[in-house]
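We now fix the convention by which a protein and its fold are recorded. These numbers are not coordinates but entries in a learned vocabulary of local backbone shapes. A record is reproduced here so that you can trace the correspondence yourselves:
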Amino acid sequence: MAKTERAGSETGPPSNTVNDGSEPMACSSQVFNEPPLTTGAVSSMVNDRSTSTSSTGLEGKNIEDQSMGGTTEPIVPAPSEKALHNLDRAIKALQGGPQDPKGSPILRLASIRIEGAEQVRPSFLLSVLRPYIDPLAPLLPWSEALYAHRTSFKRPAQPTTFSGILALTQSLGADLTSFDLFKDVSARFEPCAHPLASDEDIDIVLQCVKKSRLFLKSSTDIGNDEGTASVQGMLRNVFGGAETLEGSATFGTRTRRAFNLLFTTPVLASPVLNGLVSAYTMDTDLSTWSSSRLSTQGLRAALMYTGRPFQQRELACEASWRQLGHMLPDASVGMRKLGGDSVKAALTHTWVQDTRDDPFLGTRGIYIKAVQELAGLGGSTSFFKLESEVQCSRRLPSAHGLVCSFAARTGVLRTLDGQPSVYADRFHLGGPTSLRMFRQHSLGPRDGLDSLGGDAFWSAGASLIADMPRRPDWPLKLHAFVNTGQLCQIDQAAPLARVKSSSSSYKGAVPATGTSNRESVLASTFRQLAQPSISAGVGLMYVQGPLRVELNAGVPLVARRGDGTRKGLQFGIGVAFL
């Protein structure tokens, strides 16, 4: 963007200028306060504007009274309505003044000035403003996906109302805030100071207060039955286009050590499309249930889209190297067979829809998550994996604040080469966050004391949550629950469906010479999953932000041989509970 000055305009801080093709549009850097503008805030902002209109009249002029033959006192007539700028009329109507018989005053956007963003690239700011000022933006083939509602506002010089100007300002302010560059954004409106401007032309001025570029944080966290200590650092606006570089180091009781470096940048300066590139390494202790340790190093690149209300999509490509080793002396034979190295190269698609009023303890709304993963683009593993999760809550008509909640999770993994799946890719089930009154990862296939994981699972839970008597505002709640689910392995070499054939192979399925009597994958999987483990109980629940703590008393109602049951009391700490 070229820097220009407007003839006859006020002097002020340097500003970036956006040209809409008809007249210069000033664009400096400013931000918008995260809370939406209210009527009172708009009124205050307009009253504080530096450029104001002046009324004309016969001030101080003596008027001769012919009938009386003398001179009257000086009369100062009220300013004419024609002397008022349309912006003043709009504010007057907004403040509850007399209604204009001609309707809402017409306004036309002349310029947008963003002040306080000198460290942001002018080209980046121009791209942020493009959907609001470029008349060709709505015609682009990717306009709806990339800009969404932003192209629905009136273009500069087109007639609109003060409500339209206010809605545009709120949207633009929210966009600037979403880049995490500014801690405060305020807005004001001014009549256009250009000599050729009419009483309908106004300027939008956004004043931004930037955030510190460097952010450091150390913390200790408890969640998902694990305690961790971490150090995090973040550098904002790395190259002047709202890029972010984050790094973290974590040490914990289960995750022995983890290091992560993440670079994030808006794609095409869009607040709804972000690119992410990360490198990570992690060392996880599995000795409690699998007598081993898992080390993972990987690279990941992703695109995240949040342009739909309540929805989020992510498409990612990941390459990782997993090492399962450090077996304990008493590790089982089955666990030792799963040890070794594996390399995975996979594409992953994630879709999330969340309409809950509270993501941690909702009283209404629904949450849906679906993940599809395809591995086999390289490396030693080849499979297709599906996972899904559903949660819904509803407040019951009761004086005790009763909330009924239901949740379900499911997943299936099918290798593409007929080989058994790798331990690092398998599912695990059991524990206070996934299936209460069972030990951590204790359901499904086992060899001695070691959990081997599974290729298919499902779980479901229903809860009834109530406020503490006479203390509805407390974060401590009462709840009763019923949980059920099961985990199993899949014979990856078996055909998907049983096909009768006299030949030595199954037509249209995975070749399996001499396996004409082998049970199909679907029949075997459904047969095993149709024998769920079930538990029930009551307990106390404490919710503080994303952290949730439960102390439950219950019993397993149904358990399969080998399941690690937990009778009596069970304590759980985590973020995501069934």
